[in-house]
Amino acid sequence: MDSSSIEQLSINTIRTLSMDGVQAANSGHPGTPMALAPVTYVLWNEFLRFDPAQPELPNRDRFVLSCGHASMLLYATLHLAGVAQSSSDADVAPRPAISLEDIRNFRQLDSPCAGHPEHGEVSGIEMTTGPLGQGVATSVGMAIAGNWFSARYDRSDQTLFGFDTYVICSDGDLMEGIGCEAASMAGHLGLSNLCWIYDDNNITIEGECDLAYSEDVATKYQSLGWSTVTVDDANDLTAIRAAFEQFKSTNDKPTLIILKSIIGFGSPNKANSHAAHGAPLGEDEVALTKQTYGWPVEPKFFIPEGVIEDFQSGIGARGQILSEQFQNELAAYTTANPTEAAELEAIWQGTLPANWEEGIPCFPEDAKGLATRVSSGQVLNSLAENYPWMLGGSADLAPSNMTMLNFDDAGEFSLENRGGRNFHFGIREHSMAAICNGMSLSGLRSYCATFFIFTDYLRPALRLSSIMRQGVVYVMTHDSIGLGEDGPTHQPVSQLAACRALPELLVFRPADANEVAQSYHALVRHPHQPSMLVLTRQALPTLCREQYGSASGVHQGAYTLKDCDGEPQVLLLGTGSEVGLCLAAQETLAAEGIAARVVSMPCWELFEEQDVAYRNDILPPQVTARVGVEAGLRMGWDRYIGVDGQFVGMEGFGASAPADELFKHFGITTAHVITAAKEAIENSLR
Ligand SMILES: Cc1ncc(C[n+]2csc(CCOP(=O)(O)OP(=O)(O)O)c2C)c(N)n1
Ligand SMILES: [Mg+2]
Question: Whose CA is nearest to atom 9 of ligand 1?
């Protein structure tokens, strides 16, 4: 058998496994894997630096299937390439990441072959994809990380890093705004280690692309600072190889390979039609297509002899050499650079630097106080100084978000300085968050920042941080009507409820500088959850912690900040800037002989993780008179104050005026908290 036919056999195996998987599930997307099998084959078997036996090798090339609907393409390839499931437990017998049985069970509950690729399920799935545009944008973060690792750790005579990131993407990925944001960023930064393969098939779900998409993609990407190369026929392996060679030899720009393909290639009745996009071909059409490929109709999930060996002698053999080289280089590197090697080990193991807590400040009592965005800036700086792989930036709001790292050597990441730790993401919130996901997936502790209102602009990527359990830190300032004159377009009212609704996300709304410090403390200890700091523009007093409960209560999510004598008649529950109103109200109530307890609730999610004894201790169930105080909407608060509980907050959008006036205008005042407390007590006695 000559090599062209073994190539063809391997390619057609990817195709037929994909068709059979979709047919067995009776749902899925067969057409795109059928079209993209050749490019995927060439990439994996001839170019990708990836060891199937060591799929977590730190300097592996990354492969992202941005058009996640084509998931069978990835599963078939992982199976044929023999990618092993990595395990930290040496006693666990080696097993494939994706078995043939898994493929047979495509889209079923017990199979890692989910409808769309899910990171964390098995080795070889670098990220979760499915929402179009996320993969391409996240890949920019991976490419940045590759550069950053090289700049920080490689030495002129010792190179550990230098990995490339490859992405397969579709019309939808490039149509999405986030795709364009990310491409603009990658072009600006000249990320020559990034290669997107664009499946130019002129098909989307509704029909041909020209229904909605008619731009000249090559020219567009060139103007974004990319190198482009067009492959006119997705089955032309020679042209595909040449395109990858061109990528490898381009050292100043990212590369877009525009691959003209035919969706459902080989299917006599469905090729080149949107009918091949998102539905099984049907048993009859599968049979006809297999005949076109010269393939037996039965058995299904057929892997001809020689195909597994073909991958073993391609990616398998190259991968083994890569792993061996890496281990040798790492050994020499560790001898020469023990400190850096220890850092790398911590990154790879997911542990923290030994002295990470050392610099975190403790803020003295101060009636004037600090905006929590200001204390956040100080804490972030002191933390990042001892946490060398913590890095990030803002979407053009660093002076407002206070996220600039100011210590010596922090530097700014740019074309010239690949080791910088301050990022200028530009006004691209959505891709900023996705890029941070990519950096996090590469082992870095990334953070990003913007105004809290613009979480709406990055939410799909935030959601992926959560689904992928990445510890990205979101520093969100200007958290309420307290931002004042910018008015309702900039004043978040629904965002706290919306962010708390996201599973896995830890939302912190600290009440003073020491709660800010403790919030950072807590979030660092949760590396597998994204966290969000919701911070004020306006100054908040730094509380005297001898008079009040310790700010370390943040770790429990909610804690008694100021208790009364004996059992409380009413609980005043607040977060952030409104905690001060609760404290002031409590004093007045106490003078009137009413016992109120003030509970600061900076992180609901951590509170919910506490045992029932703790939760009942802080919020005694028998005390039903409760007031929630927060300059946002009530949604979610019923859980703590009850459906009949009193709430002091917002009921709709804000307004443009100085902050003090707005708090009065919307009735978020001490006086209102006092009235609400009395009403709550009255209601509880009825
Ligand atoms: C953000 C987002 N919007 C919508 C969808 C639903 N969807 C899945 S594939 C697709 C478009 C398919 O066209 P294309 O991206 O060109 O993929 P192809 O069919 O060519 O593989 C859409 C709208 C999605 N997955 N993500
Ligand atoms: Mg398409």
Answer: 69
562 token code pair: 């100021």
Does pTM top 0.85 for this prediction?
Answer: yes
β-pairing, 165-169 with 194-200?
parallel
| Domain segments of the chain as ranges | 3-322, 366-542, 551-685
Atom from ligand 1 closest to the CA of residue 172:
15
Given a contact cutoff of 8 angstroms between Cβ atoms, the answer to whether 137 and 426 are in contact is no
One of 2.30.30.100, 3.20.20.240, 3.40.50.920, 3.40.1190.10 is the CATH number of 551-685, namely: 3.40.50.920
Cis bond upstream, residue 503 (ω within 30): no
Whether 429 is catalytic: yes
Going by C-alpha positions, the residue among 448, 459, 437, 367 that lies closest to residue 403 is: 448
pLDDT digits over 444-472, tens only?
Answer: 999 999 999 999 999 999 999 999 999 99
Q: Are 366-542 and 551-685 equal in CATH topology?
A: yes
In this prediction, residue 1 carries a pLDDT of 42
Q: Out of 3.40.718.10, 3.40.50.970, 3.30.300.20, 2.40.50.140, select the CATH number for domain 366-542.
A: 3.40.50.970
| CB-defined site of ligand 1, < 6 Å | 32, 67, 69-70, 130-132, 170-172, 176, 199, 201, 203-205, 263, 277
Listed as ranges, residues in the chain with pLDDT below 70 are 1-4
Strands (E), 334-376: 366-371
Whole-number Å distance, alpha carbon 70 to ligand 1 midpoint, is: 10
Atom number, ligand 1, closest to the C-alpha of residue 32: 21
Q: Which of 118, 429, 578, 630 is catalytic?
A: 429
| pLDDT tens sequence across 281-336 | 999 999 999 999 999 999 999 999 999 999 999 999 999 999 999 999 999 999 99
Instruction: Give the dihedral of Cα atoms 23, 209, 460, 417; nearest 10 deg.
Output: 120
Scan for tokens 């200001």, then name that residue.
374
How many A from CA of 132 to the centre of ligand 1? Answer: 6
Which single residue is written with the structure tokens 């060891």?
Answer: 51
CA 544 to chain centre: 37
Q: What is the pLDDT of residue 94?
A: 85
- All residues with CB under 5 Å from ion ligand 2: 170-171, 201, 203
What pLDDT, on the 0 to 100 scale, is given for residue 4?
Answer: 60
Q: What's the 327 CA to ligand 2 centre distance in angstroms?
A: 41
Domain formed by 3-322, architecture: 3-Layer(aba) Sandwich (3.40)
pLDDT at 681: 97
Q: Which atom of ligand 1 is least distant from the CA of 171?
A: 16
